[in-house]
Design a protein that fits this description.
alpha+beta; Glutamine Phosphoribosylpyrophosphate, subunit 1, domain 1; 7-stranded antiparallel beta sheet; 6-stranded antiparallel beta sheet; 13 strands; globular
């Protein structure tokens, strides 16, 4: 299988005093994923300040992407802004450019959709122009990246889960492959889906945080990079995501399939 982009995520309530550990986990996940895509790196995080000025929530999405490999991206101020915020759900992407130059940020991931959706995709949607034509999306596309058609298709659907089901149904041609992680900032959860052409692995930590990565090896390298030889003691579960189903992963640590 040709290396082609990498997706990642961290979701769950970080235990008090462990946000630096979560930052290290995300950076290690990006670095372990970098070999699958060095043309651009991006993230979207549902976060809030450590110290709230008022009792009301100050949650917002922090979102950025640059045409840099992960090792350079994590040294920028764009990434380091997360050090000063507590994030309950973060999606990550390392891009191997296929459709659209990474010099144009609109071609890089995450792709932003209506209703607080942020989509990261790995694979190729070879039939994306046909999908756009069938669903009247041609005028909605803002980039040259094939992946954008997925988030636009979701926006045309009754809800994000139905939209992601439509994406799976559309990507059944021999030229189409997809593994997708979507941050839903309004509902404070992630949607996960893949077809048989693209891998995705999930790891649950013993403190109920979850990591998502493109491969098992990436997740294991991430854990070893942060916790050293004792990393296996931190892991509760490790398994591949079942293909051709939409899964929902909540910030409370719950995971369920919705078909």
């Amino acid at each position: 299988m040709t290396a082609m982009c990498a997706i990642g995520a961290l979701i769950g309530r970080t235990p008090e005093g462990k946000w630096n550990e979560s930052m290290r986990l995300m950076e290690a996940l990006l670095l372990a994923s970098q070999h699958r895509g060095m043309h651009a790196t991006g993230f979207a995080a549902l976060s809030e300040p450590f110290k709230l000025r008022r009792q009301t929530s100050q949650r917002r999405v922090v979102f950025d992407k640059l045409p840099l490999p992960a090792e350079q991206f994590i040294a920028t101020r764009h990434w380091k802004q997360l050090q000063h915020r507590r994030s309950s759900a973060v999606v990550l992407h390392c891009r191997w450019a296929t459709h659209g130059s990474p010099a144009d940020p609109r071609n890089n991931h995450p792709h932003r959709g209506n209703g607080g959706l942020f989509l990261c995709h790995t694979g190729i949607i070879g039939s994306y122009r046909d999908i756009a034509d069938r669903h009247g999306l041609a005028l909605d596309l803002l980039s040259e990246c094939d992946s954008e058609v997925l988030v636009r298709l979701m926006a045309k659907s009754a809800d994000p889960i139905d939209g992601l089901r439509r994406c799976l149904n559309e990507c059944r041609h021999g030229s189409d492959s997809m593994a997708v992680v979507v941050l839903d900032a309004m509902r404070r959860q992630l949607y996960l889906a893949r077809n048989a052409e693209r891998p995705m692995w999930l790891m649950r930590l013993r403190d109920r945080r979850w990591l998502v990565g493109s491969t098992q090896q990436i997740l294991l390298e991430t854990m070893m990079g942060v916790f050293g030889d004792q990393y296996t003691r931190k892991i509760d579960q490790l398994f591949p995501l079942a293909p051709d189903e939409v899964h929902v992963l909540g910030e409370d640590g719950t995971l369920f399939a919705v078909g």
